[in-house]
Amino acid sequence: MNTHLHLPHQTFCTIVPPHLLDHLARAGHAAARRTLDEDAGRRHQRRQTALALTLAAPAGAPTESETPDRTIYDARHGIRLPGHKVRAEGQEPTRDASVNRAYAGLGATFDLYRKVFGRDSIDGRGLPLVASVHYDREYNNAFWDGDQMVFGDGDGEIFLDFTLPVDVIGHELTHGVTQHTANLEYQDQAGALNESISDVFGSLVKQYAKQQRAEEADWLIGDELLAPDVQGTALRSMKAPGTAYDDDVLGKDPQPASMDDYVDTEEDNGGVHINSGIPNRAFYLLATSLGGYAWERAGRIWFDVLTGGELSSTADFAEFAALTSTAADGADEKEAVTKAWSEVGVSLS
Q: Model's pTM, two decimal places?
């Protein structure tokens, strides 16, 4: 077995991709420019401190907690993290809806991983879940920085409060799961897989919380995030990549739905937020083909590949697809896996 004992990549991962913010900034959107500049600073800081963080002492023995250990902070529109502590595990809701949504979203993500997949928090060892709300002013993003979740309030013109969509919370926390398991590099196809896996489990968090079957789900990521005047439904569509938005200011969703339209670019770490549409659609096709609750069969396959120790940190789509076939249980699942990847142009042979 390939155990991949190298240090984990503690990547700064945002839900709104830099190419989208750059498009808005070029159109003269001041909040997008400020967000882009702040994100660039955070990425640099993460690269500078990653080695020190990963060389810290390892966690203690795994726990068997059935409930999360959540703490929510209020950044009070500043950029110093985590901010002021406003709600701890077990405390009553506050008057701040953003605080309460963040608390609930962390819990919903914990529940999916613990109750469905038997994983104790995102590191498998009971890691406390920390989040900060009201980060900066008109900050148009949410991110996982390797240690905690951070939410902006949005500018109200393009984006709304980033605590609104529970799948965004599940997406960002799943970057932590990937960090502690397959440790996928945040570059090219490995990076697109990293982003796609976060979309997959972010969507499953939402579906599990709503108890939706695969055919009932909307398969949208961030469907509550766009302001009312924006022409679009979400940040991304797993069902139909490239159709999530088409707006005069925001631009058109650039995600490809198959390898025929794969985007070769040096931007966004080789297009990690763009080409993730291809494995996203493969998962959607598999989940709807198998039917029922997507976390029970399709989700189990993806989880087993992510945590199984065989996935290399530089995996491309073909390697990941082959491992999903191996993880499939029975002839019907294997056939469905092969068909799903084939439809997006990824061969398992």
A: 0.92
